[in-house]
Amino acid sequence: MIHSQFGKKFSSxxxxxxxxxxxxxxxxxxxxxxxxxxxxxxxPEMDQYFQQLLIDMAKSGQLNEALCNYDGPQGKDAMLQxxxxxxxxxxxxxxSAKNIALTNGSQSAFFYLFNILAGRCEQGIKRKVLFPLxxxxxxxxxxxLDDDIxxxxxxxxxxxxxGQFKYRxxxxxxxxxxxxGVICVSRPTNPTGNVITDExxxxxxxxxxxxxxxxxxxxxxxxxFPGIIFNQATPIWNENIILSMSLSKLGLxxxxxxxxxxxxxxxxxxxxxxxxxxxxxxSIGPALMQAILKRNDLLKLSQTVIKPFYQQxxxxxxxxxxxxxxxxxCLIHKPEGAIFLWLWFKNLPIDSQxxxxxxxxxxxxxxxxxxxxxxxxxxWPHAHQCMRMNYILPLEKIEQGIAILANEIEIAYQ
Length: 414
Ligand SMILES: Cc1ncc(COP(=O)(O)O)c(C=O)c1O
Hints:
Blueprint: H1 5-11, H2 15-28, E1 33-34, H3 44-60, H4 62-67, H5 77-91, E2 100-103, H6 106-117, E3 119-120, E4 126-131, E5 150-152, E6 156-160, E7 164-168, E8 180-186, H7 198-210, E9 215-218, E10 241-246, E11 258-261, H8 264-278, H9 284-294, H10 298-324, E12 331-333, E13 340-344, H11 352-361, E14 364-365, E15 367-368, E16 386-390, H12 395-413
Parallel strand pairs: 1-14, 4-5, 4-8, 7-12, 8-9, 9-10
Antiparallel strand pairs: 2-11, 3-4, 6-7, 10-11, 12-13, 13-16, 15-16
Helix pairs in contact: 5-9, 6-8, 10-12
């Protein structure tokens, strides 16, 4: 029944869709300690803010207006204009509404972009997406219409004090061959919480320009919003950069609203794809965003509510981990942003898949690290020694999960 190559590729169960099913089942099972998913935390102040906003919008008729009308294929005009104004005024960029397109979640934007910029091209060339720093976001893995469109570069690992480490881009081994169509990074990185430094970003920007290929920056957790970055980082954009953002980690994943800022050629391509695939992106997220922008609250909420919430939560979570698991057993990637901790069990006698299964049996879900190496086509032991956990649950729950993790680690060493 499913005839086409497209149909076969996208209807078969990929390893990630099986894992997502697992995690989703875990999410719906009340006793499971879910440290595996990427849902943002329910920050009480944000929940209240959104509730009041919806009430106000319902009263003023804005909600009805959004629900009962299609937007254009590029997204809600007034929101595009409002966002361009805010970014120009508050960050000093020089963009217009023509530089912004909306999609139904940034995930679908990556599907569009990777397949616009990589895959089989004219004259038999097959272009690829380069991840200059791996581990990278698992959600990129199966997005290519063609197979094998990703290549990845292993990082340099800096060992830091206090049982921490940090990945850095290994520019010495980074090869930008003629078949690379785009360079892509998530900043902060899901799964590691790494924030690629300003210097690294500048180097990538220069390399991308030299090779006449775009630099795609996935800022789902980053700057300018929702601003979940705990150290210094500068937001960058220019005509060669494609910046992806989202309303999800602001606390609105159900809106499915992704935001792409790019040159007009890319924006026009996304707008056309929106038209073909979904007529127009959904209107509710953009309507909410328009109202938030009008109140001048977007960057304020990011900096004064969202960032401090996650920063405090990660500090507390690390304290809990260290009460149960010594540095000799587990190194932690320096938490610089996003909503995850990346744990490295360097000498553990079992691999991360086995640890995942054992934890699952005991009602704790974390994600085994080996999923987060899209494009790395060689065996690398390090990839099988790490786990990703979120820190969105209440601290008591996190502590219960960590206690079980610590116990399973000790069992593995026996
Ligand atoms: C790094 C990164 N990029 C993109 C996405 C996609 O998010 P959304 O489609 O909700 O905008 C996610 C979701 O977790 C993510 O972690």
